[in-house]
Amino acid sequence: MDDVHQRDKSPIIVWFRKDLRTDDNRALASAVETGRPVIPLYIREDNSETGPLGEAQAWWLHHSLTALSAQIETCGSRLILLSGEAETVLRQIIKDTGASAVFWNRRYDPAGIKVDTKLKEVLSKDGLETASFAGALMHEPSRVKTKTGGPYRVYTPFWRAIEAGGEPPEPVDAPEKLPAPKTFPRSEKLNDWGLLPKLEWAADFSRRWEPGEASAREKLEDFTDGTIDGYRESRERTWEAGTSRLSPHLAMGEISPARIWHATRGLSKADSADVITFRKELVWREFAYHLLFHNPDMPTESLNRKYDKLGWTNGDDDFDRWKTGMTGFPIVDAGMRELWRFGTMHNRVRMIVGSFLVKDLLIDWRRGERWFRDTLVDADPASNAMNWQWVAGCGADASPFFRVFNPITQGEKFDTDGLYVREHVPELADMPSDWIHHPFEAPSAVLAKAGVTLGETYPKPIVDHAKARDRALAAYRNIKDAA
């Protein structure tokens, strides 16, 4: 009886991962409900696959942990930061504090699942309480099944199943107070982790982004108060802020998808095309995790394996020019430069630059996926892999390989007056709108007046798009005929 009584007073470790928020955090809320002391913890794990996916997201993590630490302090507690293998770190804290339980919110990436499954087993054998909670997704990937009991491979039936399943659970509010333990364990200093990139390429990130759950909630409020009106069309326009810009906050768990979903439910136009389109984007993210859960090698292996036989050129010089935004195709270059400068890229342009890499340059989609992992603040193991496979035509419910985006007409359609290109490719700022997306076809007088010298102030195209398209389709026919 004394042991039970003592355990009722022992601390609970709440292990934060990519759920860096106090709002709608079911592990945290459930720990607080017990009335026992809570030890908030973030572990910089030895497993690199479970932390930030690249340098851009490491920048975000540094600032996100700063914001979370400040929020937890307002609740009367302290965020503990430690490095190492998760089991070793947790066992040491348990030893130092007498904690008898570890609560966390579930992860759905392969590396995270592997760590958590083993940890739950070994801690439970030691008589410790472990509890995991939902929250990163609105629907558990293991529970959404087709009529035959298998996983989905096509998005539309998946969306219909989610839509028919009713509303996700109501989000839970953040606790006002966190009961502190008598003694906190030691904590490392965030600045010692070296998360901020050593290169100056992240210098402009803070002009575009403010990490933290407070910023996420503010963005959500701004979006639902006005930006969502017209979202179905404005999300495609490169020159205006027509999207929610919540993706990096979602990627680091500073806001839950359920909180976003329920914020749209209360709108007067809850059944409008704009709201439905936005909700479908949230469910597209759920679909990505559904695919990753059932295909754990999705970030490195084509779901349609026949594409592994496609004759990739993998030219290093072409890849470097693509990375640095020096392809000679303005909409592609603008996107890649936006990515480098701000750690993000307009969603429509992501598709354009992805198609250009895979089909115009015949470079393996996995190289693009790895570059995006390192440079996107919203890098996500499921969405990144699924979207690259979608563009490459080798994934589940993917765009057909023979759909090759024309970078000129795509630019003219989605950056009509060239405002996006002018912002990110300033050497073309004075080009007339009629020529800004194909300066290599402009009359010499037009180029001279705009101060553009092809091959000097702005590169000539690295490929002839029409010939590159024919080459890509020929490579596709070869694998199709061989199948």
From TrEMBL:
Keyword terms of this UniProt record: Chromophore, FAD, Flavoprotein
Positions bound to FAD: 231, 243-247, 278, 378-380
Enzyme class: lyase
Catalytic activity: cyclobutadipyrimidine (in DNA) = 2 pyrimidine residues (in DNA)
EC number: 4.1.99.3
Family indicated by similarity: Belongs to the DNA photolyase family.
Stated name of the protein: Deoxyribodipyrimidine photo-lyase
Species annotation: Ferranicluibacter rubi
